[in-house]
Amino acid sequence: MTISRREFVRLMGLAGAAGMLPASAFAAARKPSDLYEIPKFGNLCLMHMTDCHAQLNPIYFREPSVNLGIGKARGKAPHIVGKAFLEHYDIAPGSIEAHAFTYLDFDNAAKKFGKVGGFSHLATLVKRLRAERGDGNSLLLDGGDTWQGSGTAYWTRGKDMVGACNLLGVDVMTGHWEFTYLDKEVISNIADFKGEFVAQNVSVNDDALFDYKFADFAGFDEDSGLAFKPYTMKSVNGMRVAVIGQAFPYTPIANPQRFIPDWTFGIQDERMQSMVNHVRENEKPDLVVVISHNGMDVDLKMASRVSGIDVIFGGHTHDGVPRPVEVSNKGGKTLVTNAGSNGKFLGVMDLDVSKGKLKGYRYRLVPIFSNLLEADKEMQTYIDKVRAPYKDKLEKKLAVAGETLYRRGNFNGTFDQIICDALNKVNDSQISLSPGFRWGTTVLPGQAITMDHVMDQTCITYPETYRREMTGEEIKAILEDVCDNLFNTDPYYQQGGDMVRVGGMDYVCEPGQTMGKRISNMTLDNGSKIEARKKYMVSGWATVGSQSPGRPIWDVVADYLKEQGTVKIKKLNTPKLVGVKGNPGIAG
Amino acid sequence: MAKTIKIRAKAKNGVTVVKALITHPMETGLRKNKKTGEMIPAHFIQEVVCKHNGKEVINCEWGGSVSKNPYLAFKFKGGKKDDAIELAWKDNKGNGDSISAKIR
Amino acid sequence: MSLNQKRRVFLKGSLAVGALGAAAGLITPGAVLAAWNKNAFTAKSIDEAIAASNGQPVTTPSTDITIKAPDIAENGAVVPVSVATKMKGVDSITLLVEKNSTPLSAVFHLPKGTLPDVSTRVKMGKTGDVIAVVKANGKLFSARKGVKVTIGGCGG
Which residues, listed in sequence order, are joined to residue A59 by a DSSP beta bridge? Predict the structure, then answer.
């Protein structure tokens, strides 16, 4: 079923008239054509979603106030936040777009414009665009991080999302957190997925190749050793479109290798070049695109080194970037996009392609406001069915937010602080460490914190907590290591996460320094200096190397929240930053 | 008994690719047993030789920093289906193993 | 060829190897006669290790040597490394790990007819370079590739 634009406008009107929309949303809804009327251009349309992190229902998501670019990346997309972002992209302050793309006036704007994302709302937009472009003239691409991020995804081992993506009609996807399920679950989920799963940068290990357990899997190629199909050819409005997959290159480093012992990753840009050459020579493509989970900085570098790619549809770093960056390389130009996270945006690129050449394009990163897009009934029924067995558990109210609770940003968010405080309190530790993931939804002040929210922030397949002694030196080594993954000036050494979150301690951070020299002045909350040789009791979660012995983090956080009533954080353990004054990647 | 070696040799376009995997602890002798605090004695493969129809095609000297369960891949010109490939290793304790296979 | 067929052929191949190896036992470990170069493998510095394994420490950096190794190691204990070159007359390829306490990892002696293209996996204690030395027509050439060894985690 597809909805025409006229019907869509009519439905919007009905929803408004019937009082289904809050008054403020209705004011915005009066001219939905402004936001969702995307004029046709050219002859084919590529829709791109990425990093939805299994958010089936509408949520709030606060964009970062700190997203620093260091070295050559300083002040360039995606390292621009807040007012600098609005100026750079010429977005009117206070507008619905300003709310979608920045953290500015977040609480008020969130109340005014309502929740974002939700697969049933996304489905309505996708169906509408497909209908407007005409049958067979569009593709829906998914950059991955789709099967992880919610309680239902965790409990169904990603199957709920495979079903939702099948309903949505995702044509091609690649992955990252997909690989945090067991390898056999990944293989089985891909088998259930009606689209295609592509990744040119995942090989079977040398040793595993001797007797590979998934030798029968259709995507595996014994000669190349690739674990998944590297690319697929799609016919779109008579044009031959090559879609090459680039999975997250550092999956076995940032996430446990033990779940996927037979697979090896890496950026593999030389292989990407030979893959593009192979496609260009043998497949007679009219357009060559990559769906990438590299992260934007890595994509920008890859686009400068690899030639022959028309567009890289990027994800991983969760950057909502309104305009593609045009990167020059020796073959011409490559467009690089990044399409945000948590189901908040749909990237829509209309392209004018003929005889193997990209003549022109129009791009919109369209925010999904659930008040402005009617829920698709079929998808909503599916979501309700998926959630039904877990509904009571997930909707259980644990506490009330005393302030905005969020994660995204280079350093501690307020929800991270709750996790860190919970670890220290429940585990009786001095210092707590929590990973700098970029997913995790936002809770508004006065809103009930439910188990849904806790799972949004914590649910991974290695949730076990630990409590152990570490020396000051070891703690510094961890901070330095993670900080280098974030601020190394060579993007190929960046892993795309944010800084490890800390509780019970403060430090000074100089992002522009080199590894080993960024972290200084580590102190406990009581002001005493953290000494290199002295031992401290540390608790944390998400151990990558081996399974930790403690309870899952969500139980620890839930226990803590239940005791709180209304949650307000006492102290945000965010570092004192040095050398970032005037950087457009930090709120002024 | 070639219990420690897996080998695959494949000829294509006049070049034979040999890939071998050997089960071996490859202890450097520089590592401490975390429980006892004692040094774990060195135990690693020092030499690997591979022959094609009786003629040597590679001869390797290895140290303890080659990874546990070592992997070796190399290529030589010539070789055809059903030719004999032999590979043998010897470690610092004088232990060793060998295998014989056919190019496929 | 269907996937199932491919699988069957592969299994058959593996079995044949096992059976033949067990029955024939053509070369015995004792037949491995190359003299293991103790001085080279216990050398503490790069120069000493290259000198002891290749006769002298001075090498000419060459862009004709390709080292394939990950930018960031997935596991420092198992870092896949491939060294290849288009040079002619290559007698040996020597592989060293800069930051290991004994840098020399492996020497591959390549008789005529063997291509200068070898792969293995090495241990790396910390971030540093993998160094390849190629001996071709009696001359030494070298190349380096940096590999970062990280604690991991906290990403995404």
Answer: A116
Nearest to B61 among C36, C102, C111 (CB): C36
- Contacts of A153 by beta carbon, 8 Å cutoff, 6+ apart: A54, A147, A160, A161, A459
Flag whether pLDDT at C77 surpasses 90.
yes
Cα gap A153→A460, rounded to integer Å: 10
Q: What is the pLDDT of residue C35?
A: 78
Band of the pLDDT at A15, cuts 50, 70, 90? very low
Same domain as A327, residue A420: no
| Average pLDDT value for residue range B8-36 | 95
A260 lies in the same domain as A350 = yes
pLDDT band at B34 (very low <50, low <70, confident <90, very high): confident
Asked if residue A408 belongs to a domain, the reply is yes
State residue C153's pLDDT score. 60
Residue A338 DSSP SS3: strand
In this structure, which long-range contacts are made by residues C18-23, counting pairs with CB atoms below 8 Å and at least 24 apart in sequence?
C18/B2, C20/B100, C20/B101, C20/B102, C21/B1, C21/B2, C21/B5, C21/B98, C21/B99, C21/B100, C21/B101, C22/B1, C22/B2
Residue for token digits 């929800």? A415
Domain count, chain A: 3
Q: Is there a single domain that holds both residue A456 and residue A568?
A: yes
Quote the CA–CA distance of A465 and A428 in Å, as a whole number.
13
What kind of architecture, by CATH, is found in domain B5-102?
Sandwich (2.60)
Does A345 share its domain with A448? no
Expressed in percent and rounded to 5, the helix, strand and coil fractions of chain B are 0, 55, 45
ipTM of the complex: 0.96
Residue A25 has pLDDT above 90, yes or no: no
Judge: A495–C148 Cβ closer than 8 Å, yes or no: no
Per-residue confidence (pLDDT) for residue C24, from 0 to 100? 38
On chain B, the residues whose CB falls within 8 A of the CB of C21 are 1-2, 5, 98-101
Taking CA–CA distances from A495, the nearest residue in chain C reads C155
Report the candidate in C69, C42, C86, C89 with the shortest Cα–Cα distance to residue C130: C69
Work out the percent of chain A whose per-residue pLDDT is above 90.
Answer: 93
CATH number at residue A320: 3.60.21.10
Closest-CA residue in chain A for C126?
A481
